[in-house]
Design goal:
about 140 residues; alpha+beta; Nucleoside Triphosphate Pyrophosphohydrolase; 4-stranded mixed beta sheet; 3-stranded antiparallel beta sheet; 7 strands; about 45% strand; NUDIX_hydrolase_dom; Nudix hydrolase domain-containing protein; NUDIX_hydrolase-like_dom_sf
Length: about 140
């Protein structure tokens, strides 16, 4: 019941995090999520559910730190959409690293099986659901 008080089911905030090499931060989920049309979400951009008492930028920062151990700052919102296959509202943020190194141990091993930096062109191979067109444009893919 506590989660119902603190989490807003309306928004999932995801971070498009780039390092100095231009690589994109990705996570592999412990549990694959199934969507409509046979879509399966295994690899994803880090992020998560927004709490009622926090701003979107705070949410994406908190979630990325918890999932990956990286401290980031949201630079701007790239896109907001209802995902056609997973049926949630997703807010995509372009984020920069406050430090190139992990500042903490990831705290969500029950959710994240692997953390990986990939070249932008590899994102399409990892994300098997519909990739947001504005995110693709931001990544140049």
């Amino acid at each position: 019941m506590e989660a119902a008080k603190t989490e807003s089911l309306n928004f999932i905030n995801l971070g498009i995090v780039l390092n100095k090499k231009g690589e994109v931060l990705m996570i592999r989920r412990v549990k694959k999520e199934e969507g409509s049309g046979g879509a399966v979400l295994e690899w994803a951009f880090p992020g998560g559910k927004q709490r009622y008492d926090e701003m979107r930028e705070e949410c994406v920062k908190r979630e990325i730190l918890d999932e990956t151990g990286y401290d980031v700052k949201s630079i701007r919102q790239i896109s907001l959409r209802i995902h056609p296959q997973i049926l949630v509202t997703i807010v995509y943020h372009l984020c920069e690293l406050n430090s190139e190194k992990q500042v903490a141990e990831p705290r969500e091993p029950h959710e994240v099986a692997e953390i990986k930096w990939v070249k932008p062109e590899e994102v399409r191979n990892l994300i098997t659901t519909d990739l947001d067109s504005k995110v693709a444009k931001t990544l140049g893919i």
